[in-house]
Amino acid sequence: MSDTGTTFADLAATCLEHLGREEAFLDATLDSLRRVRAAVVRNDLPGLAAALGRQAELARESDAVRAARARLRERAAAALGVAAGAVTLRLLAERVAGEEGRRLLDRREALRRRAEEVERFNQANAALVRQLLGLNSELLRWLTGGQTAGEGYGRTGAYQEGVCGPLLSAQG
Amino acid sequence: MSSFGIGLSALRASQLAMGTVGQNLANANTPGYHRQVVQFGDRPPDFIGGLEIGTGVQVEDIHRQRSDLLEKAVTQNTADAAGTAAALDASRQIEAEFTPGSGTLDALLENFFNNLQQLASQPADLAQRRVVLGSAAALAGQFNTVAGDLDRMRDGLDQQIGQAVADANSLAAQIAEQNRLIQAQEARGAQANDARDQRDQLVNQLAQLVDVRTVEQDGQLTVLAAGVPLVVGGTSGTLAFAKDSQGNATVTVPGSAQAQNVTGGKLAGLLQVRNQTLGDFRGRLDALAQELARRVDGVQAAGLGLSGPLTFAPGTRAVSSATIPLAQAGTALPVQAGTLYVSVTNQATGQRTLTAVNLDPAAQSLRQVAAALSAVPNLQAVVNPQNNTLQILAAPGFAFDFAGRLPTQPAASALTGTTVPTLGGVYTGPANDTYTFRVVGSGTVGVTPGLQLQVLNGAGSPVASLNVGPGYTPGTSLQAANGVTVALAAGTANAGDSFTTPVVAQPDTAGLLPALGLGSFFTGSTASTLAVNPDLLNNPQLLAASRTGDSGDNTNLQAMVNLRDGRFLAGGTQTFGDFYAAMVGDIGTQVKQLDQRQTTQQALGQSLAAQQQSVSGVDPNEELVNLMQYQRSFQAAAKYIDVVNTTLNDLFSIIGVTTG
Hints:
heterodimer, A: mainly alpha, disordered C terminus
């Protein structure tokens, strides 16, 4: 086996290991999204708080997974001789011969399906939460007499300070 | 069901939930509002390929937080408290009328008797007589004032009762309207929580007026008020205010004279005070005025004024008919079987007769009484046909009185000798009696040894034995017994000779004179009609201070003063002062009891309100905190959605999938 072959074989093994981590993370994310959704649709405030606690953990884990992914891309880019942004699993699989390459393609396909499911669920949750935020903000604005209750995180993702009206202010 | 569909159902549910929170907050201070709670439930799942697929959430119910038992307890307490408050308010007004103090009845009563007492020390003093009459007029006026106040209070209560009945009818109509509204809303499958709250509120308002029982069936409330089904579904009836044959205020159903038994609410309190407390105190006030008039008039009629016996006495109290027995003729004051002693004086000679007129009100009409009095020599009694009063006139040259004075000559004698007896003095014995004077021995008055005059009472017992033999100067008055004197003129007396005379302590045991207002101190006989006889006010000399006719005699005045300590009321157990004090005590006790009951009911009401608030009340802080927590949670969820998006974008780039 040439150095290059050894390099791609090691890279494929590392990649498969990483993809296992990615799948596990997506499973956990999907589970968390389902829990949030269930709590939201049932107005289950304690359940929502618990689900959000888990989400915070997953957000931290997300950073770690992304960092590992970035390192893998850098390493693959060097092996493939392409820019890091151009590295894909398919490109890597084409360079890995035989069984390893097919396994890599199979894992890629499984990961794609999981990611698409997570995305679909995330989009559904996004729509739901956006609507509820709007409703709640309107309600708070009406109840407190404030100009706006603030949505916290706006369309740009930047945090906005909420403005509470006289009722809330008076009640401290 | 797509995930998008699941989202829509959740959105609808959450929108309803938040709307309900808003509704709760907006009505946090609305009386009668019950906190509303959304009850969620899973939508029926889809089954695809043997797998159960959730289809989201739905709102199953928005129900009011309420406890039927608690609501009924609140309604009952509302009715009880309203009844007590109404009774307490009215009772306090009555209490104010009887509270002792300057110018009140008890003070004026005491003042009247004190002035009489002062007059007794100088009975001929005209100025003091005017003082007595002035204090009597003030006393009578205060009776009139209190009676008028109580009567106005009764009229005011009648108005309040009528208004409460009208209000109850209006509320019944509104409850029926809510029943119709609820039925219509729920038939459309809509929630009628607000209408139900309003209906509950109306029922509680009705309970403030009258005792209420409710029965709910199929969403429709049947309301029984005072035992009457006042609201049945969408139909309401009415109650009516009426008065029964005794003048009591009642609540009836229109078209029926049957009084409904009102056991709660303002109406119960008003009716209780109107018909019982007020009626009782009005009756007791009349009883006090009547007994005062009866007793004072009885003494006044049995005495003599400074101008001596009367030649004319007009009755001031009428009967309903002059031809039916007095007992049935509605005399203002009670008459009983007894004897009226009438003295008739020959104004020229001073000779005086004393005649007993027996009276039986069960048998004698006013006309028959007049006839019996007219049978007394030199006296005529007539019935004034215009007003059914009795008038007594003396024959010219004669005058009459009812002081029971001894006749100047014995009423009956069986004397065979030549001596002539003369009676004198003032009888001071405690009861009416008949004295018989019997000669013991025979001979000449003042001469024959052993000649005596024995005095026997009506029971035949000797009360005195007088020497009229040697040592007795004929014509000299001898003390017989109890203030009665006797003198025998020169002449002879024989053993067994006798003469008799009635001796009178109570000249009118029948009570005829006050009953007919003859020679009376007062006119009128009730608290509202009592007044000092204007003849007395015009001529204070007529105030009867004497039983003898002597200007310095205060015997009758003293008898009038002694009335203060007489126990004539409450079955002979209470003086005038005691009777009034009992009235003051009773209304004070009633007010105190009502006050205590109100305190208890208020405490219970506060406790029930607190319990009701814990079940049904809206805590704005809690609701707002929930909303804020939702808001923060949604914001956190939104932030994570961004995180997931970023992660996925990065992941898709390595997977080689283009995202959009």
